[in-house]
Amino acid sequence: MPSKNRNCFNPCEFPYSLFPCAFPCAPPDPVKPIDPTKFDYIVIGAGTAGGVIAKELTDDKSTSVLVLEAGTNMTNELSNPSILATINTTRGNRFSFNVTSELESTIARTLIATNGRTIGGSSEISDMYAVRGSKELYNQWASLVGDQWSYDKISSLFIKNETYTGSTQDPNERGTQGPIFIRQQSIPPTGLINTLVQATNTVLGTPIAVDYNTGIRDCTFYKTQYIQKEVSPGQFVRSSTATGYLNDQIVSKGNQSNPDEFGVDGRKLVILAKTTVNKILFKKKDGLNIAVGVEFVKDGVSHRRFARKGIIVSAGFFSSVILQRSGIGKSDDLAKAGIPTLIESPNVGHNLQTQNYIGLGVEIDTSQILPIFFTDPNYPLILGAFQAENPMNLLESRRLQLIGAPLPFFLPASDVISNGWSLDLTFQTTPSIMSFGMVDVKTKSRGTVLVEHSDPEAYPSLNFNPLEDPNDLTYMVDQYKRIYNIIVEARDPLKYPNNGIGKVVYPPESILQLPDNDPNKQQQLENYVKASYTNFSLGGQCRMGQTIQEGVVDGFLNVFGTQNLKVADLSISPILPDGQPSAAAQMIGLNTVRFIKENPSSYVMTDKELEDYENEIKKT
């Protein structure tokens, strides 16, 4: 066990102190202290994917890994399983980075990208909605960059990642011994839930599935799945990379005063918290750019650490920015920030994809939703569905994700306030307002995340370019019409007596009732799409490709133009996962470790080479 004195680490217990100190006893012969400046691997980011990589690489107790993380351990503060509590935690900068976009001309306002600023990354602040993604999605990845991403090759990683406690139509597809806990909603499929699921099945033609996380694409389901662990009957806590892969069985637990964490039981893992990475360091050897170190700032002081075998960038939203500060990117982009170009890589920071949702609000008799709320108060969803844009195309992945909530959760805050709609079911009078989120998980518009300055503390320039592709706007208008048809079907008193479903209030039902050939209907619905447009998950700004003209990394996540450098997080997605992506990010982490173990680096740096390089750059 680690010493309680965090200012001095006994090498009998921690063989990897980063700071000079006196040791009270000599270590036993088998224990060899780790050089505080040299590691086998450096991982930038202890987030959803990076934390997985760090843990898995050090399982052999011989591989040494340094992780550089901007945040600290916040598992106690972020354990609340309530979706509303999650929303509140992301509003400040204590647990997350909130980067404001430039003014988005297509919607006449700015947007915010929220990213986890804590050990565990965005898995610690996500909405906890458990979605793997469809088989078709990963097979599309495979068609673009290689079979190592096909669903058949990566499904075992999803299984390894999870402990699933719900029902399923395909037990062979679900894991039961993994570090990430996934539960199924405890609400019974009766009453309002049954009405909406049956109506969705009728209107969209999506089959009803017990378990949507078995690789299937189009489906409607009664019970949503959440990334949560049951700690006592009916009591749940968040499950995340921090709780599953970087818990106290793996590393010592840091706090605000002593935030760094260290591997336990001989694990050669060091997590330096509250660090800001500046850039990656490269050594020229045999005409190649070999990644050998990282420059970072901690406590206001600049430091360098070095890697013998490789560096993995798992900084999520900031991954492309770190590459750019390191001189990897489009020369025009780098020049604007005063950064010299090391490698001309035109896709770095471009091709940013974002899922987004719009909302539809409906009056509902409060008596219909109170039983749902009290059965599963942390996450009382009333409907879920997925569907491809062209269901007859069997190779196409999902585009629509439909989520129903017994609250005006998906409606603009300004409308909720001005209409007096409540987000607290326990104090509502009838009728209440339920809402439907129509999520476009495969938008066609593309944005950018570009370095603004060589200063590592400077936020990047962000442009989502929402609805820039006309197809995105047309698609969302069509979803308003389709979901309205579900409501009309669900209100049928002969099929669903006493359903309690009232009029649509957002957009007003009077607009939705207009004929489809009425241009006023199209224009008004477009306005409602723009007003309720909300960005969701994002990625793709370091996407995989077969060449540097197509992407930033190859199909094994190696950064084009370099050796010993990978990117491993959602930024590598050629197409975003077709659902909330926490599980996909953890899968990417597991696949990264698979790649490293199956194809170890041909350019392992010796300690002497790293020392010579360090002395060389000290002179410049």
Automatic annotation (TrEMBL):
Xref: InterPro entries: FAD/NAD-bd_sf (IPR036188), GMC_OxRdtase (IPR012132), GMC_OxRdtase_N (IPR000172), GMC_OxRtase_C (IPR007867)
Annotated ranges, domain Glucose-methanol-choline oxidoreductase N-terminal: 39-355
Residues binding FAD: 277
Top-level taxon: Bacteria
Pfam families: GMC_oxred_C (PF05199), GMC_oxred_N (PF00732)
Cofactor: FAD
Keyword Coiled coil included in the entry's annotation: no
Family note: Belongs to the GMC oxidoreductase family.
UniProt name for this protein: Oxidoreductase
Native source organism of the sequence: Bacillus cereus
